[in-house]
Amino acid sequence: MQLFHYEHLAPDFTTRDVVILKYGLSAEETGKLEKYLVDQYMNNKVPTKTDVKAKLAEIQGLPKDSVPMKKVIDILKGYQADGIMNKMIKKILK
Question: Which of 2, 18, 40, 41 could pair with 45 as two cysteines, CB 3.0-4.6 Å apart?
Fold first, then answer.
């Protein structure tokens, strides 16, 4: 008797929650990142991917160069997939 049911996701499936789990962000780190993004959005600012990378490194207490750009892009795409601050995220990802 099978006790567990495993779901298989498409390789390109993404949501905010999936990328947060993928990169091991804590609830506190996620909250700080979201606060940063919301502050930027509310002030009609559009940070660059490099700005987001620097902020993510700061939040995680890591050197800026240790955060790969792929991680930043994946996280932003997760927010975009969930429709969170969609216009701003599209601009960042360009």
Answer: 40
Q: Are 71 and 23 in contact (CB under 8 A)?
A: yes
For residue 61, what are the contacts with CB-CB under 8 A and spacing of at least 6? Answer: none
Each residue's pLDDT tens digit, 54-89: 999 999 999 989 999 999 999 999 999 988 888 999
pTM for the model: 0.83
Report the distance separating Cα 15 and Cα 60, nearest Å.
21
Beta-carbon neighbour count of residue 86 at 10 Å?
A: 12
Distance CA 39, CA 83 (A): 17
Please give the structure tokens belonging to residue 17.
């929650």
For 11-33, what is each residue's pLDDT tens digit? 667 788 889 989 999 999 999 99
